[in-house]
Amino acid sequence: MRPLLIGLAAIGLNLLGCGTTPPTPAEAAAAPSSGGKLSYSNAWRIEVSEGANSDGEVLFRVTPKGGATQDVRVVIDDGTSEDHVARVIKNTFEDQLDTSRYDIEMDDEEDVLVKKDLTEPRFALELVSSTVKSVRLHVQKE
Q: Is the pLDDT of residue 33 over 80?
């Protein structure tokens, strides 16, 4: 029994840095808002862990400091691999954001980097919700 518990603990520790499962839209709506306390940066990293085990949608929110908020809706198909989920996120950000204001690129095949253009204001990037099963996402400042 003890080796089983040690093994489960080791698995849990390995998963700690691998991102989280985003809330569903209903959970996100019920959660308290950021209260206007957005965190701004010149660049953000979206880490993707695991492939998709269902069709669904991931909702991100981009807010330039002093600017208007824009939602970015990413549609993911069931069976999409981890690397391809990252590629879909990258392509969707390029399609929905003004690429003269933001640079969007891949890093390590499963991460997406979103950077502001030199003359643009810092911006907040939030992971709002997801209906995609198994995909874990972690958004962090670069």
A: no
**Distant-in-sequence, close-in-space partners of 58: CB < 8 Å, separation ≥ 6:** 22, 73, 74, 76, 89, 127, 129, 130, 131, 132, 135, 137
- Token duo for residue 36: 């206007």
Quick check: pTM over 0.85? no
Q: What letter does residue 41 receive in the DSSP assignment?
A: B
Q: CA-to-CA distance for 37 and 112, rounded, in angstroms?
A: 24
| Whether 39 contacts 139, CB under 8 Å | no
Which residues touch 50 (CB under 8 Å, ≥6 apart)? 18, 82, 134, 135, 136
Q: What is the pLDDT of residues 72-91, one digit of tens each?
A: 999 999 999 999 999 999 99
Which DSSP letter does residue 123 get? E
Residue 137 contacts residue 28 (beta carbons within 8 Å): no
In this prediction, residue 46 carries a pLDDT of 98
| Strand residue runs (E) in 50-120 | 56-64, 70-76, 102-107, 111-116
